[in-house]
Amino acid sequence: MKVEGGQGQGQARFSDLSRRRRPSRAEPDEDGLRQQTRPRSNGSRYITYGEEIIDHKFVKCERRVNEHIGSTDFIEKGTDNVVFRTCNEERNRVVFQIGTSDAVRALTAAQLVCKDVAAVDINMGCPRSFSISGGMGAALLTKPELIHDILTTLKRNLDTPVTCKIRLLKSSQDTVELARRIEKTGVSALAVHGRRVADRPRDPAKWSEIADVVAALSIPVIANGDVFEYDDFRCVKDATGASSVMVARGALWNASIFSPKGKVSWEDVKRDYIRKSILWDNDIKSTKHTLKEMIMHYSSLELPEGKAVIKSESLADLVQLYGEEKYYKVFLSTKQRLAYNCAVFFVFATSEAEKPCSYTLQLTCACCLFIFLYRASSILSLSPSISGVSWHKFVIR
Length: 397
Hints:
Elements: H1 11-15, E1 47-49, E2 53-54, H2 55-58, E3 61-66, E4 71-76, E5 82-86, E6 94-99, H3 103-113, E7 119-124, H4 129-133, H5 144-157, E8 162-168, H6 172-183, E9 189-196, H7 207-216, E10 221-224, H8 230-240, E11 244-247, H9 249-253, H10 266-279, H11 284-298, H12 304-311, H13 315-321, H14 325-352, H15 358-379, E12 393-396
Parallel strand pairs: 1-6, 2-6, 6-7, 7-8, 8-9, 9-10, 10-11
Antiparallel strand pairs: 3-4, 4-5, 11-12
Helix pairs in contact: 3-5, 6-7, 10-11, 11-12, 14-15
């Protein structure tokens, strides 16, 4: 998910969302794919909410700096499994979304990552069985005391902004009452999905009930539901009066939804996504999930392409499937040169002095990394953005 906030830090970014003015339409990049990760001319930004990560899993992770690609990785201890990956470039643009049913555990998870993200979000809207059975997601909607405990615990102990997302309750009045209780905890923004737990994705979102929440609150409200075209952003804002608009499936299927000029071919988006996945060594399960979503929407998983994606076990398999061997070869050779240059500089430093200056080594690695990123973004015509790989839900002001 991407939220568009201001240039300021912390609370200010989300406070800016409450300004009820019409957004200026920024010009997209040439292919319309990378607009979501760059600041607009009016100083505001898109902010990405990552996928929901369960607190039980995240508290078992450790933070590592990945010098090869310039990312910050949270690795499951005892494994090489990357549970969450971000980078300094996205520090003020990514919101970490937690699935939780316990205030202390949620805080422990948030404290691990809070200095690397723009905000921490508690998912209270997921209707999937695995989430509800664990007392998380939409299960929290019937537990206002627990909601209060979780949110106030985070607010008391974090300097990072805290947000949450809910679904509609049985009646609009119930939804408004819950939203007011959430506002009193001091959260920076509230996202409202315009469907109830029992509703199906094909059921139309109830924008009018989101408008009731907007009218009742003073904090920014982010409207979510049925955004599949660029013009839908304006339609939702006009119908709800919300500060911002969130898009999930629409962006997952075709990220060029952010272009005022209209969508580009999903085949072009798919190719760009695969290349970004290669560039950032994206998790194969995450990559396959996004590709399957695209294929299910535009084609069918029962066709040869879908079946091949399902069977793929590595990025190398996807590279071969989509004919990106040349791109992959350039990427690997550039990555190898980066590792070689770092090694050469290290040997040079140790030969000049018994104890090389750590600052010199850090600077050397940073220079090598910059060269690597520059080459990757120029030769391969890609913007170095991890959000481009892991888009999940987006919000536009």
